[in-house]
Amino acid sequence: MLDEIAQLDPAMIRTLFDTSGQFRRSRSGGDYVENFHTDLRLARESGPVHVGSVEEVLGAVDPEHPLPYPEPVYSAFSFDTVNTVFRDPETYTSDAMRGTFDTFGRNILAMGGAEHARYRAVAQPVFARNMTQWWIDRWIAGITDSLLTRFERRGRADLNLEFCALLPLLTITGSFGVPMDEALRLREHIEQMISAGTERADRLAASAAAADILLPVIARRRGDPRDDLISKLISESVVDEHGTRHALTDDDVLAYARLLLTAGSGTTWRQLGITLWALLNNPDQLDAVRRDRSLVRAAVEESLRWEVTDPTFFRLTAHDTTLGGVDIPAGSRVALCLTAANHDPSRWPDPDRFDIFRRVKPHLSFASGPHVCLGMHVARAEMSVALNAILDRLPDLRWDPDAPRPVLMGLHMRAPSDLPVVFG
Amino acid sequence: MTGGERLSLSVTPETCAGTGVCTFYAAGTFELDDDGRVSIVDEHGDPDDDIRNAVEACPTRSLRLGPSGGGRP
């Protein structure tokens, strides 16, 4: 595997994953480097629900990219209102995500009710918590080991580009049977496919290009199944609305693949980076985790609570309703600010402080209700294995004193600008 | 918990979606069967706070904590 990783194009890795670079900034609202938590606190203190988008409420609308939503927009900032919306899918539907049908194919993100439950059940078993060891043994542990081997003797690294970016990408592409030399190209297509600033025709072309990589793998696995995610998906069946069981079609598998590749190769990369950034900025807490590995779990959970990498999700109202005292008409878009909800002082004292010793309470970083993140157990496993391995193999890990101290940036996607560290 | 009041735990496997949220918060208390439906392995298999977290976070509200002796809702 080391040889294959060595063949990955460093320039392409930098383009796709350098959070402070131009490509990423254009996709993540990356020029936003204000004090996010303070801005959110001020918004929440003036009311749990606001008229307007999160960008409008925070005064962070990019004049060159006005908001694309045709419908009225409201934003929720408190734990109770965000949790209420997630748990009432009949009032607040996932039709807000219908745009993904165009490019991903019909997928669970924007399905609702019984159809969502039927399709979610197809992939749930392989993402179950009792499958985490399978993910670790098949991909996570080996990739983690190889990535660390590449730089552990060097005494310094950019953990963002050399580690955080590659572990989730190679895990999810590996599980789909995509050869490593196509992993970055697939990630490039996925980026293009989901980019809001890209013309529809170009997004559809990127979706087709992703299919060109995936369809040959699907065909091979149909004839010769292996012990991987793609084979498991192919072997599954779905119950239709009449109660009849059907094998998944290639289109079903492709839609799932595009969704899982998108989620799997983006979110965990950035959340792992956030976890390391927060610990490196709190050396006493980093040291505590190093000495007592039972704290790894708490560190990951606190990172998830404290800085959600994708801080905003959307729902669409099916009928007139009232949320947090604000009347919302049918057909409105409701933006759910997960980070603001996770910093609700009625639930977490001193919420803006990163503190791995606080009592764990359920946060909303993986959403709640029926659409709760399918990949949450795999994401947690990747971050736990990674953090343990980093602490084992990079002794005395600390910021590189010769590099500028990185910042967390991005409005739609949060991540550290980079992670320059020294060790040993 | 002060330990004064015992709470009884009940589950509704019929509505369980098998997300495994409960097994993350309270792995000693809940497990999923071969069909991915929740069951209780040990009603006091974790500290009360962990069980409360699992009950609160269940995406389909398939877990319930009630006063002991109150019967199922």
Describe the structure.
The complex is a heterodimer of chains A (424) and B (73). With 424 residues, chain A is an alpha+beta fold. Helices cover 50% and strands 10% of the residues of chain A. In chain A, helix 15 packs across helix 17 and helix 15 (250-280) packs across helix 19 (376-393). The model of chain A has no long low-confidence stretch (mean pLDDT 95). Chain B is of the alpha+beta class. Chain B has one domain: 2-Layer Sandwich (Alpha-Beta Plaits), CATH 3.30.70.20. Chain B is 21% helix and 22% strand. Chain B has helices spanning 21-25, 48-57; strands spanning 7-11, 30-32, 38-40, 63-67. Chain B has a two-stranded antiparallel ribbon with strand order 1-4. Chain B: Its cofactor is [3Fe-4S] cluster. Chain B: It holds the Pfam family Fer4_13. Chain B: Keywords: 3Fe-4S, Electron transport, Iron, Iron-sulfur, Metal-binding, Transport.
SSE inventory with pairings:
The complex is a heterodimer of chains A (424) and B (73).
Chain A: H1 2-6, H2 10-17, H3 22-28, H4 36-45, E1 49-51, H5 54-58, E2 73-76, H6 79-86, E3 92-93, H7 99-104, H8 113-123, H9 132-151, E4 156-158, H10 159-164, H11 166-175, H12 183-194, H13 200-223, H14 229-235, E5 237-239, E6 245-247, H15 250-280, H16 283-291, H17 296-306, E7 312-317, E8 321-323, E9 326-328, E10 333-337, H18 338-342, H19 376-393, E11 398-399, E12 408-409, E13 415-416, E14 420-422
Parallel strand pairs in A: 2-10
Antiparallel strand pairs in A: 1-2, 3-7, 4-14, 5-6, 7-10, 8-9, 11-14, 12-13
Helix pairs in contact in A: 9-11, 9-19, 11-12, 11-15, 12-13, 12-15, 13-14, 13-15, 15-17, 15-19
Chain B: E1 7-11, H1 21-25, E2 30-32, E3 38-40, H2 48-57, E4 63-67
Antiparallel strand pairs in B: 1-4, 2-3
